Amino acid sequence: MSGGNIPYHLRQNKAIDRNLFIELLAKLNRYRNISDYIYIGFGGPFLEDFKAIHAYSGINQMISIEMNAGVYKRQRFNLPLNCIDCRLTASEQFLKDYSFDRNTIVWLDYTEPRKLGAQLNEIEFLFTRLQAYDIVKVTLNANANALADRQGLKEDEDLNEKRLKVLKQRAGRYLPPEVSEDMVTNDEYPSLLCKAVENAAKRGMTGKSRFFFQPLTAFIYADSMHKMLTLTGMILPDENEEIERFFRDTGIKSWPLSTTDWSAPKPIFVPELSIRERMRIDSMLPKSDDATIHAALGFLLDDNEEKSLQGIKNYIQYYRQYPYFSRIVV
Question: Measured by CB atoms within 10 angstroms of the end CB, which terminus of the chain is less buried, N or C?
Answer without folding.
Answer: C
